[in-house]
Amino acid sequence: MTGLPPPRVGPTPPVGALPPPVTPMLQGMIAVNAVSKFFGSVVAVSDVSFAIDQGVTALLGPNGAGKSTLFRMLCGLTPPSRGTVEVLGANPRTDRDVRGRVSLVPQQDALFDHLSASEFLEFAARSHAVADPDGAARHALELVDLTEVGSKPVGQFSKGMRQRVKVAAALVNDPEVLILDEPLAGLDPVQRRHMITLFHRLGDDGRCVLVSSHVLDEVAKIGSRVLVIAQGRLVASGDYRDLRELMDDRAHRIRLAASDPRKLATALVERGLVSGLSIDDRNVMVDTLDVDAFGRQVAALSVELGVRLTEVAPLDDDLESVFRYLVEGR
Amino acid sequence: MVPVTDRPRRHVAPTAAVALSYRVVLRQLTSRSRIIGLSLLALVAPISAFALGSADASLDDSVRLIASVGLGLVLPVVALVFAGAAIGDLRDDKTLVYLWLRPMDRWPIVVGAALAAGTLAAPITMAPIVLAAALTGAGNGIVVATLLATVVGLVAYVALFTLFGVWLKRFIVWGLAYILIWEGFIAQAGAGVARIALRKYTRSVLVERTGADLDLADFSLAMAVIVPIVVAFAALAVAAWRLSNQDID
Predict the structure, then answer these.
(1) Looking at the predicted structure, is the pLDDT value of residue B5 above 80?
(2) Which residues of B touch A70 (CB under 8 A)?
(3) Rounded to whole angstroms, how far apart are CA atoms A184 and A174?
(4) B4/A176 Cβ within 8 A
(5) How far does B52 lie from chain A, in Å, by closest CA?
(6) Closest CB from B2, B98, B103 relative to A129
(7) Which of A104, A195, A247, B83 could form a disulfide with B161 if both were Cys (CB 3.0 to 4.6 A apart)?
(8) H, E, C per residue of B88-131
């Protein structure tokens, strides 16, 4: 299986009186099957299933949604209360070998502060039994652009530099699966761009790169393949543009900039092309349930009316809109 | 980057894992304030012994001082601070993941951490406690006995408190409760309870080697040496099992 399964939106349909269908186990570099995690009476992750393969996938969710708990289970740091987690075909909690093929960038800002960046990375390489730990450490420092400060103790680093050290430490073993929990936190815009480029390169090399974030803008840049988690449940998975298309019950919002917005708006209502609209001096904001029909007819209509149409801009096919719909229901 | 195809499987050999854990924990534990504070605490033993030696105290009094201040207070407290923190601090500051999530067994992590704690605790405890024994002026017998009892006690306490650090979030509180309440109070109540207090074994070493008269110290020398060593191995084994099975942040 390559990549995410076809897009899926919304919670699992309720099961009736019939016995539940036998669901085939998902397969992939990371395969999560019906996983739940409870901490006492608190449900941190609830019945989550997905499988992903090589490439970059973003895990999106608000703070407290269960992203870090899910990541901890993917790395074997905590076992699922129910369900199974497989990484590279093995249980990451019990299989020693698989731990050498997976890397985690943890969310917490924890490093061995007394070590220099080079020493920390060399330690990371040795703890992965890398053949040339010095070389691997140097290469990882280059990848995150920290070569010049490699001899300084990481305790003296800024938050952004520490973040880059954590990413470098996760790369020293040349992992097949890379799990990054909020890796862009604390980075400046240039470094963010650099990191996102690096993630894509790693994904293109055949690695499975799973990146979490609660910042929509970041996720849109990280990749179009998303897993959306809210309140411990996987509420959507797939390409977020496809997800938007699947939200049939929700009108698309489009902004039209026109020389005579009032005239255009009147015609749109008369033709039944919109379900709602608002007008200001230059723009018409329209809601339409049939975006394809609207797209086909609006240009012809403006020509017919003699109205100059200068902009047609969809306002809600971005990730933020998808996320708002899935998580907040609006 | 090497393409992801047919890569060799790697894992860290146990000896290398012990060395890695030892190195990183040793540096993590080496803080000036901790070493100075514990060294000052350890000085209580030779200062008390000097005062006792100046007053021409008996062998029994000298052994009692070494048993109570040196082996009953300085040794376990210093061992607790280093051994509890060996893995406890890594877990608390969330750096344990950098050892735990690696292709290596978990027992070498525990062994390396305990060795690092022992490396720091040994000079801070052994030198002042043995010096204290010498300063009592009770002869060479008490010095040799103190050295042996300190080594045995150090091994057992370091292993036990390494387990505390792995298992318990407030390892210092629990460790002090063990030292002060269990060993210092409850275990004094009778021979039966005292059997499950390490202090009884170190006291027995002192008594067996010096012939002094001391309460709750009636084990043979072999028993007094072997049981703490067995306890140490058991504690490290349980710590390794616990480390493998616990949740890591």
Answers:
(1) no
(2) none
(3) 20
(4) yes
(5) 43
(6) B103
(7) B83
(8) HHHHHCCCCHHHHCCCCCCHHHHHHHHHHHHHHHHHHHHHHHHH
The answer to whether ipTM exceeds 0.95 is no
Q: Which two tokens stand for residue A313?
A: 């801009």
For chain A, helix, strand, coil in percent to 5 are 35, 25, 35
What residues in A contact B98, CB-CB < 8 Å? 112, 123-124, 127, 169
In this structure, what are the phi and psi dihedrals at residue A87, rounded to the nearest 5 degrees? -125, 125
Q: Give the nearest partner residue to A77 out of B10, B97, B99, using CB atoms.
A: B97
Q: What is residue B75's predicted lDDT score, i.e. its pLDDT?
A: 97
The model's pLDDT over A292-326, given as tens digits with 9 standing for 90+, comes to 788 888 888 999 999 988 888 877 666 666 666 66
**C-beta atoms surrounding A306 within 10 Å:** 9
Secondary structure (3-state) at A55: strand
Structure-derived torsion over alpha carbons of residues A91, A94, A97, A98, reported in degrees to the nearest 10:
30
Q: Tell me how long chain A is.
A: 330
Instruction: Find the CB nearest A124 among B11, B17, B98.
Output: B98
With contact defined as beta carbons under 8 Å apart, do B90 and B96 qualify?
Answer: yes
Helix axes B107-135, B75-92, angle to 10 degrees: 150
Residues of A in contact with B9 (CB under 8 A): 97, 100-101
Mean pLDDT taken over chain A: 85
Cβ neighbours for A72, distance < 8 A, ≥ 6 positions apart? A78, B247, B248, B249
At B34-52, the pLDDT tens digits run 999 999 999 999 999 999 9
The mean pLDDT of A212-220, rounded to a whole number, is: 76
DSSP conformational letter for A90: B
Band (B216; pLDDT cuts 50, 70, 90): confident
Name which of B234, B245, B243 is nearest B159 in CA terms: B234
Q: Indicate the pTM of the whole model.
A: 0.82
Nearest to A100 among B2, B11, B27 (CB): B11
Query: How far off is chain B from A160, nearest CA to CA, in Å?
Result: 18
